[in-house]
Amino acid sequence: MFNRLRWLMISMLFVGGGISYLDRAALSIAAPLMSKDLGLDPAQLGIVFSSFFFGYALFCFVGGWASDRIGAKHVFTIAMTVWSVFCGLTATVTSLAALLVVRVIFGVGEGPFSATANKFVSNWFPRREQASAVGLANAGQPLGAALAGPLVGFIAVAYGWRVAFVVVAAFGLLWTLGWVLLATDRPEQHPRLGAAERAEIAEPSQEPPPVPVGRLRELLVRPAILSTAFAFFGYAYILYFFLSWFPSYLTTAQHLSIQRMGVVNVIPWLVGFVGLASSGFVCDHVYRLTGRALFSRKLVLVTSLLIAAVCVALAGVVTGVAAAVTLMAVAVFFMYLTASTYWAIILDTVEPRRIGGVSGFVHMIANCAGIVAPSVTGYLVQWTGSFTSAFIVTGGIAVAGALAVALFVRVPSAVGMTLDLPESAGPKRMPSA
Length: 433
Fold this sequence. Notes:
There is one protein chain. By secondary structure, the chain is mainly α. The protein has one domain: Growth Hormone, Chain: A, CATH 1.20.1250.20. It has 18 helices and no strands. The C terminus is likely disordered.
């Protein structure tokens, strides 16, 4: 399992992911109060939710591309600073136009996180640990969203929603300071690297050289990459529907108070944390059992995403808070159980020099769901007067994503030879550029 230095790095990413979702979920929790203060109707609120993703989706790719060139440490430092500052500036807005500008630039700052984390994992972890590392690195995200409910809800009610954004921005700036002091792009650069860990890094790799794959644009049109990106879009549509609108659903459709909503909204996020934290370990365990990397990723992804889709659709037709929250909790658990599989497919099929760029592209496509889901949901709610159709549409899109992976994800034969070997014969470490 991870050595002590890898645990330190993965812990930093875990906390950073938690802060990113604490910042991001703050708007959803404060939305009922903000809407009243700024005079926003459901359609306008949906546009506000979506505006974040115009900056976010583009900079998923830009951030991943930059991490291949200037290193993950520098990208994280710049990104976290930008998103923390503009999270705090949300407290200053007085109009819809100002809120949209702040949210777009806030999204620019958060965009690089996941693709850059995948690049960082590629540099720091051997392949046998990579899916587990990716799962843990991202597991802080639902935990941060879970904390957002009671924390932001309490501050917003007690001191006003503007104060809540200033408080959560401060957490991001503190993390950035710790990251600058503790992180390095590669393990051999770290001043706390012990003799045993240095010897481990110095051992010659037993993995064959990576298969040459050509330029970045050639990678991006591979069926395996495009299908993975579309499935990730289905995952993200569930996530952003839930992140943006479930708190408002609880207050408007289920008539919960802000305080009670903040507590109830924690439940699916906590269950999701368990799913995301275990996703990489499940994926790596199936790989060890089968000796077939791609089959393992697809099995976990397709099965779990289909279960999540069915539960989301059912949540829209049941009555009562308990049934809806239970179904959404199950949906979020299985949705997050797929989280490491998208990144693992990239790590298994792309040479290390291109992992940041390909990860960013896949994440950019996925996060276009953040542009679509909140706005479509807002218009559906305003048009139909209920959330039922929005839940069903969300489930249908996730089903399509799961089927895309099941039917179209294939690996070129030259790469496939390195994927489906038993672990004892397979590669142990992806060489880094």
